[in-house]
Amino acid sequence: MEWQQLITPVVVSGIVTGILAPLLFHFLKRRDESQKRTFDVRYAEFNKYLSTLEEIARSIRVNFDAPMSQIGKD
């Protein structure tokens, strides 16, 4: 009777852990992969945005030295 009272909780907890641990790992892995995909998409869009801004800045680059130097001379 003593052995049965000691072994029963061990067996039950082992079975519960054997079932819940892989399920928990699976759901956490899916969530992590989803967050990684979202991050990758946002990162790619941000890089595209920054490259577009750099291209715009490069195309409208103006030399402000001449107009700014004449402001103090007026």
Q: Can you walk me through this structure?
A:
The chain is mainly alpha-helical. 88% of the residues lie in helices and 0% in strands. The chain has two helices and no strands. It is rod-shaped, with a radius of gyration of 32 Å. The chain starts with a helix and ends with a helix. The mean pLDDT is 86.
Quick take:
The protein has 74 residues and is an all-alpha fold. It is 88% helix and 0% strand.
List keywords for this structure.
74 residues, 2 helices
Helix residue percentage: over 70%
The succession of helices and strands, N to C, reads: HH
Assess the beta-strand content as a share of residues. Answer: under 5%
- The rough form would be described as rod-shaped
How is the topology of this model organized?
Blueprint lengths: L1 H58 L5 H7 L3
